[in-house]
Amino acid sequence: MFDSRKKSSPDGKNAVSVECEDATGTLKVCPFGVWSIAQGLRGTQDLETAVSALSATESPRLTFDCSGLSAYDSALICFLLKCIYLCREKKIPADLNSLPEDIRRLTELALSATPEQAVSKVVPDSSDIFYRIGNGVTRIIRDAKSYLGFLGETVCAFFRLFRGKARYRKRDILYFIQNCGFEALPIIALISFITGMILAYIGAMQLGQFGAIIYVVSLIAIAMYREMGVIMTSVIMCGRTGSAFAAQIGSMQASEEISALRVLGINPVEYLVLPRMIALTLMMPILTFYSNAFGLAGGFAVVSTMGVTFEQFWHQTVITMNLEHLFSGLIKSVFFGWLVAWAGCYRGMTAGKSSLDVGAAATSAAVLGITLIVIGDGIFAVVFNILGF
Amino acid sequence: MTTGTQMPIIEVRDLVLAYGTEPPIMRDLNFSVFPKEIFVIMGRSGCGKSTLLRHLIGLQQARAGEIFLFGKNLQAADEAGRNALLRRMGVMYQGGALWSSMTVLENVMLPLEEYTSLNLRERKEVANYKLALVGLEHAGNKYPSEISGGMAKRASIARAIALDPEILFFDEPGAGLDPIASKELDDLLLNIRDALGTTMVIVTHELDSIFSVADRAVFLDTRTRTVGAVGAPKELRTSAAPHIRYFLTRAGTLK
What we know:
The complex is a heterodimer.
Chain A: H1 2-6, E1 16-21, E2 26-31, E3 33-34, H2 45-53, E4 61-64, E5 69-71, H3 74-89, H4 101-112, H5 129-162, H6 170-180, H7 185-207, H8 214-254, H9 257-263, H10 268-303, H11 310-320, H12 323-349, H13 355-387
Parallel strand pairs in A: 2-4, 3-5
Antiparallel strand pairs in A: 1-2
Chain B: E1 10-17, E2 26-33, E3 38-43, H1 49-56, E4 64-69, E5 72-73, H2 79-86, E6 89-92, H3 104-115, H4 120-133, H5 149-160, E7 167-171, H6 179-196, E8 199-203, H7 207-213, E9 216-221, E10 226-231, H8 233-239, H9 242-248
Parallel strand pairs in B: 3-8, 3-9, 6-7, 7-8
Antiparallel strand pairs in B: 1-2, 1-4, 4-5, 9-10
Helix pairs in contact in B: 3-4, 3-5, 4-5, 8-9
């Protein structure tokens, strides 16, 4: 079936002949047989050769003879239009009256339809290097302004919150706490458990060679508490909650619900963004703590097969852990929670008005969130190193 | 209802509408709306009707020109002054724009919660009364996703009149409604105007609506990019420039 589609050359059923009367310079196009879209479209090569063969002194004309035609659909009209446009270019008048009534009407309709008046815009040449550089730079500046603008708005909203002046619904916070906290527990448990297992295998691969399996426990504990727990939780929340925030707020933008808030004098950043950011910022440390526990469990599941008992595992974990290890992940989780919620809300608030834009906002919220988490983690690594934390 | 001596409730002077750095959509707009009038903003699709509305309700800053609401300059007002002006008006958006996370009743209650000191029971009472005005007293506990488009528009009107505004704005109220619902909505607007004395500004291009409710109308001309004509629609149909008559007679098919 697909083969027949590729075949755009006719197989004789919808052939066309071009007759040229040299005396008057009249080009007669005679399509005959069955013309069907299913058999592909016909080119105008024959006419082109006939046109180029005409000598310049004649006053040529284009006429049609459809007497040999048995059936036709849009394939024929497309062909006729191509012939007429070709002749128009060469300033050859076409005689539509030589067409049968129904075909003539269709052709005239296609020729007479005036395109919708477009708003005249100056479209610059996009291949121009200076245009592209300028465009790129202005876009970067515009993006930076919009990031900083929204950052400023959210920070101001938090200031008003601390001064007790922000207007939002407390009920919303509880809803989002349930939504982004409790309901995320199963997926976080699964991912963290597996992460702990992977860490154990990686550690055992090297340390096992020295018979130091017990130190795998230390590795799992430190890696989970300092990095993997918080990173995994943040990434999950980014994909699960950050993009959901963007989609929710983006679709509210599309349906003018945000305009309705603004006109009522309600600041949408306080009303929509604050509850989401508060909820996720509060929940992230708790989720991280929970993730850490499951990471350890996953690690224990693996090292127990290598001869480490639960007492040994527990003892080794306790002597490895200190307050710095315990809290460095939790401190980071507060910031990452804020960043993930911020990225989601930012993409939602700056989303466009079409349904495509809502999807794009959700996707870019996840990308922006993960980028911010990794950048943030890098900054924390440097800062913690300097502080000896 | 043209009243020459009355103070206009909305006055637009030399307004220029534009998005970003693009060339203006409309320029040099001048017109006035008088109290208790139903004023229609009409024009062909894409002429900037809805953009003009967004300017009038303070969602967009004009590139140039002034908008006076109740005699005060909306563009020059600070945030508090602007909010004070906005509080005296209500808006019905094209799709209703009901807040989807709240029930219809809660939607109507939110403006009351923000701007009055009524307690919960009183807010419910007022909101139910507003819903009864638009014939939706039975649908208060439904979510916006559970009601029809026509009901969502009515609910949006109930929300818009929650704070007894002096001006109501409507963005294409008849769009997407069947002929009967559209007629009922027109009647509702007339009833609200007669009962509450609210000034109304309606963006629409539906001729039936224009002729049945509008006292006066402004025609935004896509070709000249400014006001084509201001006046009573029935008079414009006979006296305005040919292309405006063409618009008002549905391309010459209505008499």
